[in-house]
Amino acid sequence: MSALVAGVMLASSLQAFAAGSESDETAPPPKSKTTTECTDGKVWDKDKKECVKPKESGFNDDQLFQAAREFAYAGQYDNAITVLKLAKDENDPRILNYLGYSNRKAGRMQLGMSYYRKALQHDANYILARSYMGQALLEQGDVQGARIQLVEIRDRGGENTWAYRSLLQSLKGHVVY
To answer: What pLDDT is attached to residue 115?
Structure first.
């Protein structure tokens, strides 16, 4: 195999790893106008075609979740938390997971871990919470705990997901999320 072919294959596999498949709900979200055009924690309202304050948006929980998730991946953790706190279903595992992620990434590890645990109490099969919890455990030096989460993801049918691959890469020493 030529070096060029090997390089193209590696680049292709890294791109697939980073993005996940289109049907992989555990993969990071694409950027939207919420983080590319809006400022001051505002979110893009597709209907109004403008940036609006999340509290005044009238968004449903799914829309709030999507906006918060994008904020979280853009490193705007406090904006993500503000939006997540507006959700009506405070026990939605997705909401709890991203409260965990955002708090952990903002330096509030124990609070983040408590949200991951709550998310898993409501849905033990929510593999993205397991992936982020595993990465948090790694950050705390608990390699065995992270491996347990990886096995849980696999055993729950998540081996072909971004959540599994990102935790696996973290266990191999590559910081993912």
So the answer is: 98
